[in-house]
Design brief:
single chain; 151 residues; alpha+beta; 2 domains; eight-stranded antiparallel β-barrel; 2 helices; elongated
Length: 151
Amino acid sequence: MTGISRSTHWLLVAAGGVTVAVVVAFLVALGGDESGSKLAATDVRGVWSADRGGRLTVRADGSAELERVMEPETGCGQADDEVNLTYTGPARWVIDTHPDEPEGLRFDYVGAGTGKKCSVYLSIVGSVDSGGVKGFLPHDPGPWYEMLGQG
């Protein structure tokens, strides 16, 4: 052998094996789910209501109506000179994923006060099949949105 003891040799072999396993697991996780979106328009269309009064009406044609939704950033509310405004008005939606959040919906609209393009994400958790589906807005995690009924 070389100048190392037998136990040190096996310890290095084991450490190498663990390193290879961790790298493989990381690469598999990085690859993600290639099957595409798990949500469909039929799963999310309808009225979503928050316990603090916000409301999202999601239509199958990609249109939506947002009511009292906290603006995601300055300039995305009803006026550009106030802070912490809400937005009420029309939007378009697509199935999308906010970084580091579960799959959900992205609502795009133009801020009334500034003409700025704004986006609000609704991250959806729970099982659509079991009826236990809820959603939250990553930029305003306080209220939970629940689907009241399909439209």
